[in-house]
UniProtKB/TrEMBL annotation:
Pathway: Cell wall biogenesis; peptidoglycan biosynthesis. Keywords: Cell cycle, Cell division, Cell shape, Cell wall biogenesis/degradation, Cytoplasm, Peptidoglycan synthesis, Pyruvate, Transferase. This is UDP-N-acetylglucosamine 1-carboxyvinyltransferase. Its EC number is 2.5.1.7. The modification 2-(S-cysteinyl)pyruvic acid O-phosphothioketal is found at C117. Its main location: cytoplasm. Phosphoenolpyruvate binds at K22, N23. InterPro entries: Enolpyruvate_Tfrase_dom (IPR001986), Enolpyruvate_Tfrase_sf (IPR036968), MurA_subfamily (IPR050068), RNA3'P_cycl/enolpyr_Trfase_a/b (IPR013792), UDP_GlcNAc_COvinyl_MurA (IPR005750). Coiled coil: none annotated. It comes from Pusillibacter faecalis. The keyword Phosphoprotein does not apply. The active site is at C117 (proton donor). Pfam families: EPSP_synthase.
Amino acid sequence: MTKYIVQGGTPLFGEVEISGAKNAAVAIIPAALLVDGVCRIENIPQISDVTLCLKILENLGANIRSMNRHTVEIDCRHIHSTRTNYDLARRIRASYYLIGALLGRFGQAEVAMPGGCNFGGVRPIDQHVKGFTTLGAKVTVEGGFIRAATETGRLKGANVYLDVVSVGATMNIMMAAVMAEGITVIESAAKEPHIVDLANFLNSMGANIRGAGTDTIKIHGVERLTGGSYAIIPDQIEAGTYMAAVAATGGQVLVKNIIPKHMDCITAKLVEMGVEVEENEDTLLVRRSGKLQRTNVKTLPYPGFPTDMQPQITAVLTLAEGTSLVTESVWSSRYRYVDELKRMGAKIQVDDKTAVVEGVEYLTGAPIQASDLRAGAALVIAALAAKGRSEITQVHYIERGYEDIVSKLQALGADIQSVEEPDINLEANVG
Ligand SMILES: CC(=O)N[C@H]1[C@@H](OP(=O)(O)OP(=O)(O)OC[C@H]2O[C@@H](n3ccc(=O)[nH]c3=O)[C@H](O)[C@@H]2O)O[C@H](CO)[C@@H](O)[C@@H]1O
Ligand SMILES: C=C(OP(=O)(O)O)C(=O)O
């Protein structure tokens, strides 16, 4: 079992380089299945979700060459199966993209029901299914697999009106439609930066997608996608997490390799809280010396405040002067980390979708456990700011989405170590 040991209370100083975006990478890698050629993908983050995505593709017959730590070449010219490995696919949320990609290229797909972060509520995929069926596929669930297939081997372009703004459904339907016959229009589409990134990737391989980043996306089906080279955008949420860490601990950090526009929704909130943020071409200088001020935060689809930053900003608000309200409006529930923050002395009351956060003078280190990826990030932030020692367990969740988080924080002066410990066998101690 790996755990992080954090001795908190040290302000962060220095520079941090942001990696490629997880939620773009986990879509673009499956999208390589649509390409009848070699895709060179650069700025791939070294995280466990990416490793899994690559393994799933390899099992389907993709030839994957690692060119360097952040660049892979994926050759999907000789895919031999449209049925994914059950145990691999069920472990990540993004495995749902394999359905759109396989269906779009081969007219059929069999993929395990997706996993991913468990926020304590449901994570439906009905809008994905609605999109596939509107394009002419039959979708069933059998033996834990989602099976999607067309009668003719090729989907037919159509208008898809999403009932909820869904990142996953928007990207999945885009993948399925890229080689469909005719034109597909996705209405009420999500607008996150990774949606634009996926469209740019597919267009660079020969697709014809217009309007990504707006709520109407138009896709002219093409016959074939060929190879090319593409670099993934920087991770908005990883960058936001380091910004939040500086806000919590104090100090000054240059956050490098970012797209400032993508950060506006996060920067604006931190500035309201008294954090100074200086924007340059592809960096943000983040500084906090005075007291943190209270604010209210409501998560919304892009360009609103991202739900994937909600736990991290809440961790910062536990140390702000006054009472803040945090409202989660994307997911029905995403507060499993709150009990862990309370172990550190945070004062938070959750009532349905709203957390009432009463700022405290300081947090104290404690043994705490990550319950999902961003919950884990929030605990790291709290532990860095807290007085004393924290032990964070279940850090494999954190490593799903943060490349080298321990060494990046150490380079900023944080006292954080990753340690391996044998699992405790409770049964062996009985009697
Ligand atoms: C791999 C990946 O990119 N994961 C991100 C993606 O998840 P994911 O794609 O699962 O999230 P969605 O944008 O689809 O979900 C948004 C909302 O729509 C609802 N919904 C979604 C699909 C559907 O078929 N039916 C339905 O009702 C969900 O319950 C949720 O309330 O976007 C979320 C919202 O920004 C992020 O938190 C996740 O980090
Ligand atoms: C919830 C997240 O990821 P996933 O959808 O892959 O579980 C996330 O990135 O915060």
